[in-house]
TrEMBL record:
The lineage of its organism: Eukaryota, Metazoa, Chordata, Craniata, Vertebrata. SUPFAM superfamilies: Fibronectin type III (SSF49265), Immunoglobulin (SSF48726). This is Neural cell adhesion molecule L1-like protein. Residues 597-693, 698-791, 796-898, 899-996, 1042-1135 form the Fibronectin type-III domain. GO terms for molecular function: cell-cell adhesion mediator activity. The chain crosses the membrane at residues 1028-1046, 1147-1168.
């Protein structure tokens, strides 16, 4: 009895804390329905390395609640989960990783006791699969220069965030710029293709940082075909810039179409992207129609990406991007719509304690865009709402004349296309208590009710008007009577109201697409676990299903209706609610679809059966006005069953006047078109037959051609079969000569061509063609003018004259041929020129022919591309479509001298204290008679003043540059000169030094130290006394005599030769040059610098069966000396080659060097004895038989050796640097006229094409003993 008394007293105190007041009665004081206090918020993404996934659900209540789970709308019993009544404290369960995939789905927790059932919002568990690209073969993409390219990535789905990269196989990033960019979709876009884009390793990589995984797509190949150059363009290339890809008007690779709708939620990041194509690469500009760009706007990806962070409703509207280049513009429109999921306008609905017999109002105040739809449930839907005692008014549920059995947990579910809100509201209905009481505030002091927001009502209830946050707390109700008194404490918690701040907006959606409504609401954050959004259509709950084929998707205040149809049109209400209150908003969804087929087609004849009026009744336009009607016909004679368009009429018109052809059996149908597209056609009319008649028109597109000189071919476009208007169609061809008195000649034909024979050559005619059938003639035809056949011209241009502008360009003029001699349409003039000889080598007759065509009737032309200092012969002829006329009388002329080309090589060697030796090769093209060279030099870092030396000897290729400063760095320029001037200089830098040593071979006397000779003589005397020292000396000298490069050999084929060598460790990364000369032609060619560590060099492009001289020339390490030289012969195709390699003859080389060194020792010994006054046999022999050659020898030693078939290339080393006039230089007086780079040919596997060798003939080239004298 006491407990019931306390419950009634408490009710009297607290039954009016409504809407914004949440009551919490101590559990030990009275029974309470279940209240969800915590639960897992979805969605949950299970990562591969998560061992377990915990889904929480906890509620309070008295009695303690029991828990039940559903998965995808069906009862679900979690593993190792019990609903034993002795353990009701928690509904949480745990899933283990290895079984996660079978538990993927949407869960909902229900907490129940005898007073009601509370439930959570849906908790989605997502178990993503491991992302990977499919294994696929991708064909190469072949495009022309200037064309756009799209490389599709199509990355796999995975755990966000996902990052996309484009790299090569070698993990080098593909460079992005204005032309090449990656879209938001991950594809790689090329606005226009260039030759450098050709590669075979474009790879798309997708990175998923959360699961620490990177996947790679199969590499893609792009082949860009270059633009082909014509002869004419090549000739003019010296006057114009290189030809670029053709200019292309701009377009958009992304996005497609004309307009794109962009729907996003308030607070999200707006990204609008426009990627253009065209050449030159278009630029992108952005604008917002009717408004300024938001201040938060940023641009990325070279202006192609527009970004607005934290988008607001005012940011919505029309945006436009414009792609522009020199060829034009292209644009695209974006319709940006900003919406919101449901949210509480103030706070979720609060639980209420009410007196029996009163009306209970539960307000679910939500907002959102589109307006949320509110759905009401009682005890989580397990009990039906009483239709007689409850009613719904907008966002409020009203329980009329509430009774204790109406006590329950009520759910307000507010949702729109962007999400939902859920609130559990505990409603307690108690019998009235009329005992006296005294309310006390939370600080145990009586509450003052006079003149304030607090009031005690007649039924002794306590009322707070306009509850505020600071009203929250504990309120004590004290009741007393003659039997005593009792008190109960009520907990008041004032929450923010739930309010929809971005309601759903009215939308017009095309049928078959996806409609979205958003509903964004604000609510008290402490009620987040109970917040939900519920959607209704036309007041009815939307039938949501969790199956894959469901058309409705509700998540996060978003209602998404996929594949909409006309039945989806209506009012959608979003209800945003919490367990305390709710709010709602409504929006209209209009479905746009293609028009229905017209009905009741009627044919009415007007003036004749060939003139009829067709009328119809339009069908529904489905909310999009009809823009036009299309009338189609089908006839049974020529194309039965095939419908063709006959006429278009405006959408506001429902009739059409039709002009028909004769002799046909028609039927008609009509379909309507609106902004969505064309609708279905109507049912066809009954057949309508038209009578035969004469043709309505004559043939068109008449062509007159002359394939032969004495005939004229006439052809035309025949009438269509339906245009015959009757049987027996034929054509009358009439023609006569133009401009003279002539009669019409007429012919009737059934085909659509006619040939007039035996005409004069290229004579104008008048032609007309008229159609007729068995019912009459067509209208009067129009006259057409044409010519009979052409013939080749008969006359040549006269008075051909040439004006030479410079060394390579001339102007040629002529008198045009008489028009009568052209005998056809003048095409233009051809200029032919023949280079007869170079004035540098007049005995060498050339036959270099070239020509250019100049269209139109002209009297002069500019001819480029001539060679300087050459003799030419030039002719001109006229041409027409039939061919070329005779050539004019030839004109002979000569081009003047030009400046030479740059010298191909300039080297320095033999650096002394104040001098250095310069060696160079003559220019490849002298373009005239060489008069000498211009030498310029200056000190680097200290002086910019150039010193000039004119070398007036044309056939020299070396020069001692003297008067330099010791140990200084100089820059040297050398230019070749003719009478026309000096050519471009070649630059070289060199150092002067105190002394230098030769790097080729071993020179015992390379040192300039004057103390060396006495020590050497003392050592020699000791060798005579002690023989073992002599043996040591011989071994030492043998070591010094080894050449710098070892094992030099050659492989010779029919068209190439491979020169191989072995470099010692100290010679690695040095440079040398390979020079070769065809002994018959006498022109030297030289390679680029070759690194000695490469150990070989390929000379390609040789002639089969020819004899070549090959030289190896050193630089730096070998002081520009000619290291080795030999003569080789390429083999004839089909002949067996053989290999030459003298590295195996080391014993012979060693022996010869030892003999040479022993001779050197003997000479030294003789020198010592002679200084002592002694005589020796060799000296006496020399006195008796003087040897001129021996007197000319110095301390240097020249070794030449060879064997039979296999031999190394012969080498020479000149090692004296004592200033005695001996010079070790690699370039002889032979002129190095022609230089070329060596190229190496490889097979697909990277190996050399088969090495072949041929029979070689030995030979040698004499080296100069010193520089030639030059007059400066």
């Amino acid at each position: 009895i006491q407990a019931e008394f306390v419950r009634l007293i408490m009710l009297s105190c607290c039954c009016f804390f409504q809407v914004l007041s949440a009551l919490q009665i101590p559990s030990d004081a009275m029974e309470q329905p279940p209240t969800i206090i915590t639960h897992t918020s979805g969605p949950i993404v299970a990562l591969p390395f998560d061992n377990t996934v915990k889904i929480r659900c906890e509620a309070r209540g008295n009695p303690p609640p029991e828990y039940k789970w559903t998965k995808d709308g069906k009862v679900f019993i979690p593993p190792h989960f019990t609903t034993n009544k002795t353990n009701h404290s928690d509904g949480t369960f745990v899933l283990h990783n290895k079984h996660l995939l079978q538990f993927q789905g949407k869960y909902r927790c229900y907490a129940s006791n005898k007073l009601g059932t509370a439930m959570t919002e849906e908790i989605e568990l997502i178990v993503p699969s491991i992302p990977k690209f499919p294994n696929e073969g991708i064909d190469p993409i072949v495009v022309k220069e200037g064309d756009p390219i799209i490389l599709h990535c199509n990355p796999p789905e995975g755990v966000p965030p996902r990052q996309i990269y484009w790299m090569s196989i070698g993990l080098q990033h593909i460079e992005k710029d204005e032309r090449v960019s990656m879209g938001i979709d991950g594809n790689l876009y090329f606005s226009n293709a260039l030759q450098k884009d050709s590669r075979r390793d474009y790879c798309c990589f997708a990175s998923f940082p959360k699961i620490r995984r990177i996947v790679q797509k199969t590499a893609m190949a792009v082949i860009v075909k270059s633009c082909r150059f014509t002869k004419l363009s090549v000739v003019f290339s010296m006057f114009e810039a290189p030809e670029a890809p053709p200019v292309r008007k701009p377009g958009l690779l992304l996005p497609p179409g004309v307009q794109t709708e962009k729907l996003l939620l308030k607070g999200e990041r707006l990204q609008l992207e426009c990627i253009p194509h065209g050449y030159p690469t278009p630029t992108i500009k952005w604008m917002k129609l009717g408004d300024k760009m938001p201040s938060r706007t940023k641009y990325d990806n070279y202006g192609k990406l527009l970004i607005i962070s934290a988008v607001e409703e005012k940011d919505g509207g029309k945006y436009m991007c414009i792609a522009e280049n020199s060829a034009g513009k292209a644009d695209h429109y974006f319709d940006v719509i900003v919406e919101e999921p449901p949210k509480w306008q103030t706070e979720p609905p609060q639980s209420q304690l009410n007196v029996s017999g009163s009306d209970v109002h539960i307000k679910c105040a939500v907002s959102g865009k589109p307006s949320p739809v509110i759905t009401w449930r009682r005890n989580a839907g397990f009990e039906q709402l009483q239709q007689t005692s409850t009613s719904m008014l907008d966002d409020t549920l009203i329980i009329h004349n509430a009774r204790p059995e109406d006590s329950a947990v009520y759910q307000c579910d507010a949702s729109n296309s962007h999400g939902s809100l859920l609130a559990n509201i505990n409603i307690m209905i108690m019998s009235e208590c009329v005992k006296t009481f005294s309310p006390r505030a939370k600080d145990e002091t009586p509450v003052t009710t006079e003149g304030g927001r607090f009031a005690i009502l007649q039924d002794r209830s306590f009322q707070i008007i306009r509850a505020e946050k600071n009203d929250s707390g504990n309120y004590v109700c004290v009741a007393s009577n003659t039997e005593g008194k009792s008190a109960v404490t009520a907990v008041l918690d004032v929450k923010d109201p739930t309010k929809i701040v971005d309601p759903p907006r009215e939308a017009q959606i095309i049928s078959g697409t996806t409609a979205q409504f958003t509903c964004q609401a604000e609510y008290d954050k402490s009620l987040q676990s109970t917040f939900e959004v519920v959607w209704r259509k036309d007041g009815e709950k939307i039938p949501l299903s969790f199956e894959e084929n469901s058309r409705y998707l509700v998540a996060d205040g978003l209602l998404q209706i996929m594949n909409v149809n006309l039945s989806d049109q209506g009012f959608y209400t979003c209800i945003a609610r919490t367990s305390l209150d709710e709010d709602n908003a409504t929006a209209l969804l209009t479905i746009l679809d293609v028009p229905d087929a017209p009905k009741n087609l009627t044919i009415l004849e007007l003036e004749s059966p060939r003139n009829v009026s067709l009328s119809w009744v339009p069908g529904s336009d489905h909310n999009s006005s009809v823009t036009e009607f299309i009338v189609e016909y089908e006839e049974s004679q020529w194309e039965p069953g095939r419908w063709r368009e006959l006429q278009k009429v405006p959408g506001i018109q429902a009739t059409a006047e039709l002009a028909l052809h004769g002799h046909l059996n028609y039927q008609f149908r009509v379909y309507a078109v609106n902004a969505v597209g064309p609708g279905p056609p109507s049912e066809p009319t009954k057949r309508h037959k038209t009578p035969p008649a004469a043709p309505d028109r004559n043939p068109e597109n008449i062509k007159i051609q002359g394939h032969l000189p004495h005939q004229m071919d006439i052809s035309w476009e025949p009438l269509l079969p339906i245009e015959h208007n009757g049987p027996g169609l034929e054509y009358k061809v009439s023609y006569r000569k133009l401009g003279v008195e002539d009669v019409w000649r007429e012919h009737l034909v059934k085909r659509h061509s006619f040939v007039v024979r035996n005409t004069s050559t290229f004579v104008p005619y008048e032609i007309k063609i008229q159609s007729r059938n068995s019912h009459g003639w067509g209208p009067e035809p129009k006259l057409v003018t044409g010519y009979s056949g052409e013939d080749v011209p008969t006359a040549a241009p006269r008075d051909v004259a040439v004006e030479v502008f410079n060394t390579t360009v001339l102007r040629v003029s002529w008198t045009p041929v008489p028009p009568a001699t052209v005998r056809g349409h003048l095409g233009g003039y051809d200029v032919h020129w023949l280079r007869k000889r170079s004035l540098l080598n007049p005995n060498n007759i050339l036959d270099e022919r070239q020509s250019m065509s100049f269209p139109g009737n002209r009297t002069h032309a500019i001819v480029p591309g001539l060679e300087p200092f050459s003799e030419y012969r030039l002719t001109v002829n006229v041409f027409n479509k039939k061919g070329n006329g005779p050539h004019s009388d030839p004109v002979t002329f000569s081009t003047p001298e030009g400046v030479p080309e740059q010298v191909p090589i300039l080297t320095t060697s033999n650096a002394q204290k104040d001098s250095v030796l310069l060696v160079w090769g003559p220019p490849l093209e002298a373009n005239g008679i060489l008069t000498g060279y211009l030498l310029q030099y200056h000190l680097i870092m200290t002086s910019r003043r150039w010193t000039l030396i004119n070398i007036n000897v044309a056939d020299t290729t070396q020069w001692w540059l003297e008067g330099l400063e010791e140990g200084s760095l100089y820059r040297i320029h050398l230019s070749a000169c003719t009478r026309a001037g000096c050519g471009p200089p070649l630059a070289q830098e060199c150092n002067t030094a105190l002394h230098c040593s030769q790097a080729v071979g071993g020179n015992l006397f390379a040192s300039a130290n004057p103390l060396f000779l006495p020590f050497f003589l003392l050592f020699l005397y000791m060798c005579l006394c002690f023989p073992f020292l002599l043996i040591f000396l011989l071994l030492f000298l043998l070591f010094l005599s080894v050449p710098a490069l070892l094992n030099i050999s050659s492989y010779v084929s029919d068209t190439f030769a491979k020169i191989s060598w072995t470099a010692r460790e100290e010679q690695q990364d040095s440079q040398l040059y390979v020079a070769y000369m065809n002994n018959r032609e006498g022109n030297w060619r030289i390679s680029e610098a070759v690194n000695t560590s490469q150990s070989f060099h390929i000379i390609d492009g040789l002639k089969p069966g020819a004899v070549y001289t090959v030289r190896l020339m050193a630089k730096g390490l070998l002081d520009n000396a000619s290291i080795f030289e030999d003569v080789i012969q390429t083999r004839v195709k089909g002949a067996e080659g053989r290999r030459g390699d003298l590295s195996t003859q080391g014993w012979f080389i060693g022996t010869m060097c030892a003999v040479a060194l022993l001779t050197l020792v003997a000479l030294m010994a003789c020198f010592v004895r002679r200084n002592k006054g002694g005589k020796y046999a060799v000296k006496e022999k020399e006195d008796l038989h003087p040897d001129v050659e021996s007197h000319r020898m110095n301390d240097d030693t020249f070794c030449e050796y060879s064997d039979s078939d296999e031999k190394p290339l012969k080498g020479g080393s000149l090692c004296s640097l004592n200033g005695d006039g001996a010079l070790g230089d690699s370039i002889s007086r032979d002129s190095l006229v022609d230089y070329a780079d060596g190229e190496v040919e490889f097979n697909e596997d990277g190996s050399f094409i088969g090495e072949y060798s041929g029979r070689k003939r030995g030979g040698s080239v004499s080296e100069p003993s010193g520089p030639s004298p030059v007059t400066a």
